[in-house]
Every structure is written in structure tokens, then in C-alpha cells.
Amino acid sequence: MTSTTSNISILIIEDEGVVAHDIARRLKKLGYDIAAIKNVGEQALSYLSIYSPDLILCDFMIDGSKDGIEVAEEVFKRKKIPLIFLTALSDRGTLERAKKALLDGYIVMPFDNHDLLTATELALYKHSVELEKLAISPAKINMMTTQEITTREFEMLQDICKRLTNAQIAEGKFISVSTVKYHIGKLLEKMEVSNRADALHKIIKMLTT
User: Fold this and answer.
1) What CATH superfamily is the domain 9-127?
2) Which of 50, 58, 116, 171 is the most buried (most CB within 10 A)?
3) 64: CB partners within 8 A, 6+ apart
4) How many CB atoms are closer than 10 A to CB 148?
5) 36 CB neighbour count, 10 Å cutoff
6) Looking at per-residue confidence, does 57 or 208 come out higher?
7) Alpha carbon 21 to chain centroid, angstroms
8) Comma-separated ranges of CATH 3.40.50.2300 domains in the chain
């Protein structure tokens, strides 16, 4: 499993400001981008109605009428973004509720950077494997585009599903990063989305509903 932290954006849902900013600092140090920090479940869901981060880190106990598991259930219904729980609770009841919410992992606090990196990379890897199982084809993608995608654009989409960075795609195809950016830009334009994450969520929604 190759680490591809570049270009990965993460939403943090945590009601304790000090903890949230400490997690953000750790993630940035590991090479991830912070999409946003939300401290109330309803705020997070409102944010997710507009934006699509690559991953969500969500505390089990958060402010608002919905706890972390209820937020996770809503996320799965709407966008199927990979989600990891942050919790100081390790009792069986909590973990059973978490499993039913179809989470992609959990971290028991306190944790170190290695725990954070491992859980994050595993969740992203699991999500990429699930995307590969959807048997994406040019014909299926063209059903959701304004015009047919090219062979090269489809290759870019396959690499995006594998969570490869622009640099990794360029190296694997022996082309420049600027060429990769051009083809991905055209692909996103045809799919009528603004970023990689939105492209993936659009594919998942079409192929699983």
C-alpha cells in the first residue's frame, strides 16, 4: 500500500477546539490537507451538502442533536465518504454501534501520529478497493458526462480511483505533471464536477443506486 497523502483533504468533526486543532496539526505534518473543522454534527452535514472531502475524522461524542455515529449514518446515505471515528470510549456497546454505521475505522484516544497515519491510509485504501469493484468502464462514465471522455481521460480516472497523486500518475505514464493536470481538468469539466472527490462521489452514486 503506497502512501498518497498529497491532494487528500480531510474534514475534522470535533467539538473540543484544542483537540481539533491538534489533530489538524498532526494531519498537516503527515502531508494531508484540512478541508474544514466543524464542532457540531448539523454544521458538518450542512458543509457536506456542498463539499466533498476525501475523508472524515469524526469524534463519537460531539455537540448538537446528533452524535458522531448518527452523523456517520447520514454521511453513508448521502455520499459514502470514508469515515474514521475518534473516541475515548472503547466499550463493546460503542464499538457495536460504530460497526452498524459502516465506518471505515476508529482510533481510540490518546493516539500517536503512527496510529493516525495507519488508520487514515487503511480507510483510503479500503475505499479505493471498493471503487475498483464497481467495474468502471468508459461507457458507464459517458452516461454521466456532457461529452464522451477520451482514452487518456479514462486512464486518469482509473488512477484517481487508486488515489494516485498527479506526480505519481505522471511518473507511471511517462508524461509531465502539467499534462496530467490538463487531462484531469478536461475530465472534471466533462463530468461537471470541481474536484477529484466530487468525481468519485458522482461515480459511486450512479453505480450503487
Assistant:
1) Response regulator (3.40.50.2300)
2) 58
3) 40, 41, 42, 43
4) 12
5) 16
6) 57
7) 19
8) 9-127
The C-alpha cell of 205 is what? 452514486
| Whole-number average pLDDT of the chain | 83
Q: Spell out the CATH class of 138-208.
A: mainly alpha
d(CA 174, CA 10): 30
Question: What is the tens place of the pLDDT at every residue in 106-163?
Answer: 787 788 898 888 888 888 888 777 777 677 888 889 988 989 999 999 999 988 887 7
Contact 126, 54 (CB under 8 A): no
For the chain, give the number of residues. Answer: 209
Cα 204 from chain centre: 12
Amino acid present at 93: G
Longest dimension (CA), the chain: 52
- CA dist 137 and 151 (Å) reads 11
What is the C-alpha to C-alpha distance for residues 160 and 197, in angstroms, rounded to an integer?
9
Q: What angle do CA 109, 104, 73 make, to 5 degrees?
A: 95
